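Supplementary Note 3. Input sequence used for the single-chain structure prediction.
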Amino acid sequence: MKRLLLSVLVIITISQYFWREWSQQPEVVTEYDPVAQADYTIEALSRRQFDENGHLHTQLDAEQLEHYQDLQFTYFQQPKYILYSSAQQQHWLIQANESVIYDNRNLELEGDVQVIASHPDEWFNTLYVEQLNMDLQAQTISTSSAVNAVADKLKFSGQGLRGNLQTQEFELINHVRAEYLVKN
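The predicted structure, written as discrete structure tokens, is reproduced below.
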């Protein structure tokens, strides 16, 4: 009887030990990665850039900017870019949910991207796309996403786009569909 009682106590003790060891959550050690942290953050950004003649060239407004020096890019939330022509007559408003800029030149916009002409006409007013790439210096745009656009007398859509904002020349790549609107 003593041996049976002693055996039961030993089994209970060993069971308790292993139950406590296995029931404890393992410690998770999170390592700090300085590359993944923004070097600086700016809230409510508003930036204007002028050309050599003192004319307004570009304007950028964003809810937040995060700059990553080691990764060589800058991230923007709710950006609005305004690009002015050399004559200061035509400008474009480009807005999106977020964007990333590389090398102070290559811009990638994502989420409800809109390209809006400052002076809408019968041929072009607003371009809608989910993702857009832009060369800021050459002011060229491209995408492989679905494209929808509206104007005073025209609606068009397609898959993929190449365009130049300075020359106002745009080319839909695939599955082009256009509707000419007759208004009284």
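The two ends are 106 Å apart (CA to CA). The CA atoms of residues 57 and 113 lie 21 Å apart.
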